[in-house]
Known about the structure:
- The protein is of the alpha/beta class.
- It has helices at residues 59-67, 70-74, 79-85, 90-107, 111-114, 134-143, 159-169, 188-197, 250-253, 256-268, 282-285, 289-292; strands spanning 3-20, 23-37, 40-49, 123-124, 127-129, 149-153, 174-178, 200-204, 224-226, 245-248, 272-275, 297-298, 316-317, 320-321.
- The protein folds into two domains: 3-109, Enolase-like, N-terminal domain (Enolase-like, domain 1), CATH 3.30.390.10; 123-321, TIM Barrel.
- Helix 1 packs across helix 4.
- The protein is built from twelve helices and 14 strands.
- The protein has an eight-stranded parallel β-sheet with strand order 5-6-7-8-9-10-11-12. A three-stranded antiparallel β-sheet has the order 1-2-3. A three-stranded antiparallel β-sheet has the order 4-14-13, with no helix packed on it.
Amino acid sequence: MTRNLRVYEDTFPIAGSFTISRGSRTEVQVMVAEISDSSYPDLRGRGECVPYPRYGESMASVRQQIEAMAGLIADGASHAALDQALAAGAARNALDCALFDLEAKMAGQRVWQLLDLAPPPDLITAYTLSLGSPEDMGKAAQGAKDRALLKLKLGGAGDVERVRAVRQGAPKARLIVDANEAWEPDMFLPLSQGLAELGVELIEQPLPSGQDHILADLPHPVPICADESCHISTDLPGLVGLYDLVNVKLDKCGGLSEGLTLMAAAKEQGFGIMVGCMLGTSLAMAPATLLASMADYVDLDGPLLLAKDRDAPLVYRDSYVSAPTANLWG
């Protein structure tokens, strides 16, 4: 048995633009790892990742990390071997998910069968509204008023006004928000109290990672979810008493293998769970659907924000996302 590794880049246009507190963009660049096996020449396992500059990643650096694993892959590396050879991050995610995809195809089973998990059910996913003025976000909310769960990108000053405008535009929708580390410590209590009055259910990463300790001495009018502050399971002990939930993203934790470990450890330590994503295609979301049924919140709307998706994409119906077909992944 010999396995071959192919790495390639894709670019997908965003429908309009996507804005968070760190900036705006109109397209998403993704990296795909593809693994084949000489014993099954017609089969290919794929995994997609999204390099994230916030974590020191670039397209070039992630490609280099993946390509450096070609020898290990050729020798039939296991998921555990990849975990030991690569740090958590986008490169390991692409390889881990590609390996799962190949293993499922070789076995003639779905990945959840290999892992002894229940088939992923249809689940409500959040739909994200980009950061903008209250007026712009209110208009965007009107266009998404029939969505069951909206996730609002926030930026600090003016956030209560933004959420109020969204609440007026989509009065029946449940609301969660993501500040992407944009709040100053003195903003936390007044903003979170204001958002509680507007019915916001969850605030994601309000303060910069590294200032988490401040949360220990502040009341949480709205539950707080760690994103940038939580990557892998060994991060969890330092977050106890600071956060109420953690956001599990495969590009952060380094793949489905660590994602399952992180979720189990988080539940054991009393954290709620969000399963989230970077802005990517259905190929990137597909492995995360296996985790979603075990989460309190699901945020796998990446493809809904794109102008173009992959072939055999995930099916999004109303506010629900369905499990991937075998033609897509797993």
